[in-house]
Design brief:
The protein is α/β, with parallel strands linked by helices. Helix content is about 35%, strand content about 15%. The protein folds into two domains: about 140 residues, Aspartate Aminotransferase, domain 1, CATH 3.90.1150; about 230 residues, Type I PLP-dependent aspartate aminotransferase-like (Major domain) (Aspartate Aminotransferase, domain 2, 3-Layer(aba) Sandwich). A hairpin with a 2-residue loop joins β10 and β11. The protein starts with a helix and ends with a helix. The protein binds pyridoxal-5'-phosphate (PLP). The site of pyridoxal-5'-phosphate (PLP) has 14 residues, from α5 and α6. Pyridoxal-5'-phosphate binds next to α5 and α6.
Length: about 375
Amino acid sequence: MEENVNKTILITQSSMPPYEEYIEMIKPLWESHWLTNMGNLHKELEESLKKYLDVPELSLMVNGHTSLELALQMFDFPEGSEVITSPFTFISTTHAIVRNRLKPVFCDIKASDGTIDEDKIENLISDKTVAILPIHVYGNICNVEKIQQIADKYDLKVIYDAAHAFGIKCNGIGVGNFGDASIFSFHATKVFNTIEGGAVAIKERRLYEKLYNLKNFGIRGEELIVGVGCNAKMNEFAAAMGICNMRHMDEAISGRQQVDEIYRSRFENTKGIRLFDRREDADKNFAYFPIVVEDDYPISRNELYDKLKENKIFSRKYFYPLTADQACFRNKYKDVSLEVARYVSDRILTIPIYEKLSEEDANRIADIICGK
Ligand SMILES: *Cc1c(COP(=O)(O)O)cnc(C)c1O
């Protein structure tokens, strides 16, 4: 008992396949010496992810951030064009826009689920707007129907940051099918990991070819460079990790679901702890467990964060501050009211959830939050 009370619990723990399984998978590399450059494991993982995510085309990448940068770059938007996005996200989303020499136009979010407020998008459109970049934050799926309507009306591209939405289907449609492109992250901290990795889902072969050039220096032959590109290839060791982890996805998700169910039942009647709504027509991957610490909770979000930490439980103020409020972006872009986003960001806390988090530990965390 004593031991358990003092145990450190981190926000997440990366899923890993059995050691022997991974070793079996990488063994052939000592024969082939083919360690990267679209090897067999890269090809195998790309194909199986395409099936799993149920998307027409998918390009594997070295990480989620580069996937975002290249997904934006493949549309050749004029420099200085505007991209409407949400500031309630990991900093990567905003960095990808700015590093493409595009201007983020921040849009407020909905308090109900943390996704971009589709009713506030249209007001932000100018003659410089070229795209909308919404985030399926915590795996909460955006109002993809309304966003597509707006994009069609104004002839805008839609690129989804689906880093949190791995494997989710909405009305039976893989989430990577919405918009013109969706990016996924396979970082060690995500539901599905390749240690570091990511992918861009697109609809046309033409864009697959374009991404291929962008991720491999534009090389199309020993003496032929067809375009300017960078190096964003996933290596064989990462792909091997992905192939192994793919085999255990069901266990990974159901382990997380058990934790999610414990938390949900424990917080149902906890005054001041609010949970986000989730689309009923979308399934869940239980990637995160965000709680909104409302003003009628006995202590503030920051105090709860500290209280958990005193008990060696490490939660995250994820996402606080808003990306728009970070020193590198503050007061630089269009001044838009982000009232709801600031409200949520000031009260948000994500608490530990991962496949192997025990029932006992989940209840210990819930005890602290419920004030037991
Ligand atoms: C993790 C993440 C990224 C970046 O992915 P990496 O694989 O870490 O580069 C981008 N956007 C969001 C919302 C993320 O959570």
